[in-house]
Design a protein that fits this description.
Radius of gyration of chain A: 16 Å
Number of helices of chain B: 2
Largest sheet of chain A: 2 strands, antiparallel
Oligomer: heterodimer
Number of strands of chain A: 2
Structural class of chain A: mainly alpha
Structural class of chain B: mainly alpha
Number of strands of chain B: 0
Number of helices of chain A: 6
Helix content of chain A: 55-70%
Largest interface: A-B, 20 and 12 residues
Shape of chain A: elongated
Shape of chain B: elongated
Chain lengths: 134, 57
């Protein structure tokens, strides 16, 4: 199946689930594969900057905790960062320092970065199935 | 960085993101960006002031 775009003539011939998976894994990649180069660059830049700031502020990449149902929602948002999440964990980052002055802000940046990336996955879906034409 | 600078940076990043997510044209994007940025940055200050009389126990 081939999907033509209106931006620069880019064509993504990948199955939709794979396209959405790649979009989640690498922020902006889904849009790049669909030919939305400018938007791909902007989205990748915004998400990476938000993620890095969150890590520098010693925020936490939250994982589900027993007895804390809200941590499941936070974990979904944190996992929304895709490869950035796994890269940070592999480097021993994102454990969070509760006593750090920037901890809460760091969490906010990390969670918003993840949520934005998840929204991008939905946007890639809408573009690919033709619900959105830009 | 102080808290206000971080607030402004977060508002900036989110405003850029939603501008490019939802708007197509340059002029439309600028208008929308400033609207979202102002709503987030000023809204946070207003909410902060509204919460001021109710400190955590």
């Amino acid at each position: 199946m081939s999907r033509k775009t209106d931006n620069d003539g880019g064509v993504a011939s990948l199955p939709l689930p794979l396209l959405m998976g790649l979009s989640w894994l690498f922020p902006g990649l889904g849009h790049l594969l669909l030919g939305r180069r400018l938007r791909a660059g902007v989205f990748a830049g915004v998400i990476v900057v938000a993620f890095v700031v969150g890590i520098l502020l010693r925020g936490e990449l939250i994982l589900p905790r027993q007895g804390d149902p809200l941590s499941v929602l936070a974990a979904i948002a944190a996992l929304g960062n895709g490869c950035l999440f796994f890269l940070a964990k592999a480097l021993g980052l994102g454990d969070g320092v509760v006593t750090a002055p920037g901890y809460e802000y760091g969490n906010t940046f990390l969670l918003t970065a993840g949520m934005m990336n998840l929204l991008l996955v939905l946007d890639v879906h809408d573009i690919a199935v033709g619900h959105k034409d830009f | 960085m102080d808290h206000f600078a971080l607030l402004v940076l977060d508002a900036f990043l989110i405003a850029v993101f939603f501008t490019f997510l939802w708007k197509r044209d340059g002029k439309e994007r600028w208008r929308y960006f400033w609207k979202v940025f102002a709503a987030l940055a000023l809204g946070a200050v207003v909410v902060g002031w509204l919460m001021y009389p109710f400190p955590r126990p």
